[in-house]
Amino acid sequence: MEKESSTGRKAVSAEQSVSQTRSMKKILSGDSIFKGITICFALSILFILLLMVYEMGRESFPSIRQFGLKFITSSTWDAVAEDFGALPFIYGSVISSLLALLLATPLSVGTAIFVTEISQKRIGGIISALVELLAAIPSVIYGLWGVLVMAPWLQRSVQPFLIDHFGYLPFFQGAPYGVSMMAAVIILMIMIVPIITSISKEVLMAIPQSQREAAVALGATRWEMIRMAVLPYGRSGILGAVILGLGRAIGETMAVTMVIGNTPQISLSLLSPAYTMPSVIANEFAETTTRMHSAALMEIGLILLAVTLLVNVLARLLVWSVTRGTAGGGRIQ
Amino acid sequence: MFKNFFRTILICSALITAALAGRASAATLVNGAGATFPYPLYSKWFSEYAKIDPSVKFNYQSIGSGGGIKQTLARTVDFGATDKFLTDAQLKSAPGKILHIPTVMGAVVVTYNIPGIGKGLRLTPDVLADIYLGKITKWNDPRIVSVNKGLKLPANAIVVVHRSDGSGTSAIFTDYLSSVSADWKRKVGMGASVNWPVGLGGKGNEGVAGQIKNVKNSIGYVELAYAFENKLPYSAIRNASGNFVEPTIKSTSAAAAGAAKSMPADFRISLVNQPGKDTYPIVGFTWLLVYQQQKDAVKGRKLVEFLNWELKKGQKMAAAILYAPLPEKVVKMVENTIKTIKY
Question: Given an 8 Å threshold on Cβ–Cβ distance, is B200 in contact with A179?
Answer without folding.
Answer: yes
